């Protein structure tokens, strides 16, 4: 019965995580903490990150087939995002978590509110005027989408996303997607797909670190594989649903998710517990 529930959990996490380009770790981690109170946060974080890798990889394959991944920009952002992930993993033990969690929880709530409000405006991307890197992607229907952004800003923000997501133990997609849409002018569907590809590589990096530091061992394999199988299947569902949802609704889903994560972080921080 336990493994059936874990399979269904992975299916739900994979579908929703892929739909909004966030990987689903922000949903999975608090559930694991509640279901397995005897396990250390480090062990559960390692499982969550490995599931995010499987989910993001599966979803990315679908998005590549749909020609929605901006591979050039993804590789560019990973050049600073991966060092950010490594830095976050090294710095996490020396950070005063309660103060940091309180601050970041408030920032997530504010970010979710701003993002939700902005979805009621015009979401047409605007071409950047300074230090612009212009991208044009062909759609499967033969049309094209053009947008532009500052590479320096994108690289700086990607490092910050990798660092913060590693410190908090959540997938960076929940932060990266709104940044790509609102600050880097990416169309919503390209942002979610490209973010998913970036997340897959970042999650793999974090998983490898957890394997070497002993947080992810063979004892976690049955639960990891069960949730992972559900997440891989769910990712395919989420990718298909994303083609039927307007960009506004994807962003609104992400805004709600940001708010929920912010509330979770604040509650745990006020209770003097690690996230």
Which short descriptors sum up this protein?
275 residues; mainly alpha; two-stranded antiparallel sheet; 72% helix; 4% strand
Structural class: mainly alpha
Major sheet: arrangement of strands:
1-2
Q: What is the ordering of alpha helices and beta strands?
A: HHHHHEEHHHHH
Shape: globular
Rg on CA atoms, Å? 18 Å
User: How would you sum up the major sheet?
Assistant: 2 strands, antiparallel
Q: How many discrete domains? A: 1
Helix count? 10
Give the strand content: under 5%
Low-confidence stretches: none
Distance between the termini: 28 Å
What integer is the average pLDDT?
79
- Name the helicity range: over 70%
Find the count of extended strands (DSSP E, 2+ residues). 2
Helix and strand topology:
Elements: H1 2-20, H2 25-35, H3 41-65, H4 71-91, H5 97-118, E1 133-138, E2 144-149, H6 151-168, H7 173-182, H8 188-212, H9 221-242, H10 247-270
Helix pairs in contact: 1-3, 1-9, 2-3, 3-8, 3-9, 4-6, 4-8, 5-10, 6-7, 7-8, 7-10
Brief overview, please?
By secondary structure, this protein is mainly alpha-helical. It has 10 helices and 2 strands.
Notes on the protein architecture:
The chain has 275 residues and is mostly helical. The protein has one domain. The chain has 10 helices and 2 strands, in the order H-H-H-H-H-E-E-H-H-H-H-H. It has helices at 2-20, 25-35, 41-65, 71-91, 97-118, 151-168, 173-182, 188-212, 221-242, 247-270, and strands at residues 133-138, 144-149. A two-stranded antiparallel sheet has the order 1-2. The chain is globular, with a radius of gyration of 18 Å. The mean pLDDT is 79.
């Amino acid at each position: 019965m336990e493994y059936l529930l874990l399979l269904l959990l992975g299916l739900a996490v994979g579908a929703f995580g892929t739909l909004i380009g966030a990987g689903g770790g922000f949903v999975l981690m608090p559930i694991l903490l509640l279901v397995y109170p005897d396990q250390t946060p480090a062990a559960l974080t390692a499982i969550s990150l490995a599931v995010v890798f499987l989910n993001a990889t599966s979803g990315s394959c679908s998005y590549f087939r749909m020609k929605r991944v901006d591979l050039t920009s993804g590789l560019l952002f990973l050049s600073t995002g991966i060092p950010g992930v490594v830095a976050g993993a090294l710095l996490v033990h020396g950070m005063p978590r309660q103060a940091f969690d309180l601050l970041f929880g408030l920032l997530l709530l504010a970010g979710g509110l701003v993002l939700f409000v902005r979805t009621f405006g015009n979401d047409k991307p605007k071409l950047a005027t300074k230090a612009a890197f212009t991208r044009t992607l062909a759609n499967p229907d033969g049309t094209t989408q053009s947008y532009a952004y500052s590479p320096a800003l994108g690289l700086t923000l990607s490092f910050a996303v990798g660092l913060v997501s590693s410190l908090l133990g959540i997938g960076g997609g929940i932060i990266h997607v709104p940044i790509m849409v609102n600050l880097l002018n990416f169309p919503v569907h390209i942002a979610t797909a490209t973010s998913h590809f970036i997340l897959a590589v970042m999650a793999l990096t974090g998983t490898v670190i957890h394997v070497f530091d002993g947080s992810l061992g063979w004892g976690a394999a049955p639960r990891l594989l069960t949730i992972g199988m559900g997440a891989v299947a769910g990712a395919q569902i989420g990718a298909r649903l994303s083609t039927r949802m307007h960009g506004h609704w994807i962003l609104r889903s992400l805004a709600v998710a940001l708010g929920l994560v912010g509330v979770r972080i604040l509650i745990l921080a006020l209770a003097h517990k690690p996230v």
